Amino acid sequence: MAFVPGEIVERFRKQFQSAETPLVYRAPGRVNLIGEHTDYNLGFVFPIALDMACYVAIAPASHGQLRVYSHDFDKESSLPVADIATVKPTRQWSDYIFGVAQELTKEGFSIPPGDMYVVSEVPVGSGLSSSAALEISAAVALLGGRAFPKIELAKLGQRAESQFVGMPCGIMDQYAAVFGHAGAALKIDCRSLGHEYVELPSNVRIIAANSLVKHELGTSAYRERVAECRQAVAALREIDPKIESLRDVALDFFERVQDSVPLVPRRRARHVISDTQRVVDLATAARARDLPEMGRLFVASHRSMQYDYEISCAEIDFLVDAAIQIPGVYGSRMTGGGFGGCTVNLVAPEAVDTFRQQLRAAYHERYQKTPAFYDCKPAEGAGLL
Ligand code: GLA
After folding, report:
1. pLDDT band, residue 6 (cuts 50/70/90)
2. At 84, which helix (H) or strand (E)?
3. Per-residue model confidence as pLDDT tens digits over 85-133
4. Which CATH number characterizes residue 141's domain?
5. In terms of DSSP H, where are the helices of the chain?
6. Measuring from atom 11 of ligand 1, which residue has the nearest CA?
7. Which letter does DSSP use for residue 201 in this model?
8. What is the CA 310 to chain-centroid distance, rounded?
9. Are 329 and 345 in contact (CB under 8 A)?
10. Is 193's pLDDT higher than 90?
11. Is the pLDDT assigned to residue 264 strictly greater than 90?
12. What are phi and psi of 146, to 5 degrees?
């Protein structure tokens, strides 16, 4: 896909039988290059915002409702605006929008009655953050140009997801959807909530490969990982009470004291602490245009997710192992929350076609599924089209 505003306006009018001209907002998905599950441990992450985005067309209406239609699910849902402050989640896609609307009312914004037409290019369940793209595009559409600091927008999207939808996520996805920048990756410090833009070498392509395994186990396993990291922090505080999160733990200190942490939390902590360090190292390698080193860090990060954090799955491991055998592939790793979704691959431009052909054939032969590939070019964060 690749939507143009005119098309969405037409679809909006047809869907709502309206003559209004809606405004169209967009917010991007993201691919994380390294630093997985480090955000809620207040470490670093390194995503790029994608040109695949979620679009929301919005116009005022006189029916007293917030009426939303999802093109992708072909479902409509409405809520009297008077009920936004008290609505409870219903475990449907509209939770993302009503959750954002509720958070905006808590911030003192009134939500006028209106119609919203939602259409997304970000594949659901692929680890490319379709939910943050939906939350942030809905939030900017509902704000309709009213001033709100960008960082607050990211935090509001995260609150909608963790408190209303019930997925206890970190800040990375919403942050990337807000602050994404064409031509650069974002190195985000999840403690200070500041970021720097890091330009990527021009002689490499970033290709996501979709295993088509949906991360359905995701939420409960995610919750477990959050709890295991807290257990690791509790054990490490016995040694140094100044430690408040895994961000405070240097790798060499951890290696000296790790035996005092119970086995499973110890492995989780080892992943988080080492992957935070790998974010710093990847940014350095990217600035030095050192592609072999970037590739090495990718694979080290994947092994850490595979064996220590235990969030990979057979299909994803297969995609990584097959990719790194292909000439011109510098590195490969799973991206996002885990248990399926996409791998992200660093590929020499001249090797991209072979990479796709060989990986497609190998995956099809093993799993009888054809992976989808996405060319990941850094794009701008959320805004009006
Ligand atoms: C999901 C969450 C993010 C982050 C990643 C893992 O995408 O929404 O906050 O924790 O998983 O890095």
Report:
1. confident
2. none
3. 999 999 999 999 999 999 999 999 999 999 999 999 999 999 999 999 9
4. 3.30.230.10
5. 5-16, 94-106, 130-143, 150-159, 172-179, 218-237, 251-257, 263-287, 291-303, 314-323, 352-367
6. 337
7. P
8. 19
9. yes
10. yes
11. yes
12. -70, 140
Give the other-Cβ count within 10 Å of 89's Cβ.
Answer: 15
Looking from the CA of residue 35, the nearest atom of ligand 1 is 12
Q: Which two tokens stand for residue 241?
A: 């009470």
Q: Has residue 2 got a pLDDT over 70?
A: no
DSSP symbol at 200: P
Protein residues with CB under 6 Å of any ligand 1 atom: 32, 36-37, 39-40, 129, 169-170, 172-173, 336-337
Assess if residue 250 is contained within a domain.
Answer: no
Full residue range of the structural domain in which residue 123 is found: 5-201
Instruction: Please give the distance, rounded to the nearest whole angstrom, from the Cα atom of residue 20 to the centre of ligand 1.
Output: 37
Atom 8, ligand 1: which residue's CA is nearest?
169
Q: Give, rounded to a whole angstrom, the gap between the first and last alpha carbons of the chain.
A: 16
Tell the residue number behind the tokens 């808590």, with chain if given: 106
Q: Ligand 1 centre from 188 Cα, in Å?
A: 13
pTM of the model: 0.97
CB within 8 Å of 277: residues ≥ 6 apart: 251
- Residue 84 domain flag: yes
Which of 343, 351, 379 has the alpha carbon at shortest distance from 36?
343
Q: Could you report the per-residue pLDDT of 267-325, keeping only the tens digit for each?
A: 999 999 999 999 999 999 999 999 999 999 999 999 999 999 999 999 999 999 999 99
- Give SS3 for 319: helix
**Catalytic status, residue 173:** yes
Cα(190)–Cα(200) distance, rounded to whole angstroms? 21
Going from the C-alpha of 119 to that of each of 19, 52, 134, 345, the distances in angstroms are: 19, 11, 9, 27
What's the 170 CA to ligand 1 centre distance in angstroms? Answer: 6
Spatial contact of 186 and 50, defined as CB atoms under 8 Å apart: no
Catalytic pick from 95, 115, 173, 308? 173
- Name the residue type at position 22: P
Number of domains comprising the chain: 1
Residue 237 — φ and ψ, nearest 5°? -65, -25
Q: How far is CA 352 from CA 173, 202, 302, in A?
A: 27, 14, 21
162 domain residue, yes or no = yes
Alpha-carbon distance of 151 to 273, in angstroms, equals: 25
In a domain, 208, yes or no: no
Minimal-distance CA residue to ligand 1 atom 5: 337
Contact 136, 161 (CB under 8 A): no
Q: Which atom of ligand 1 is nearest to the CA of 40?
A: 10
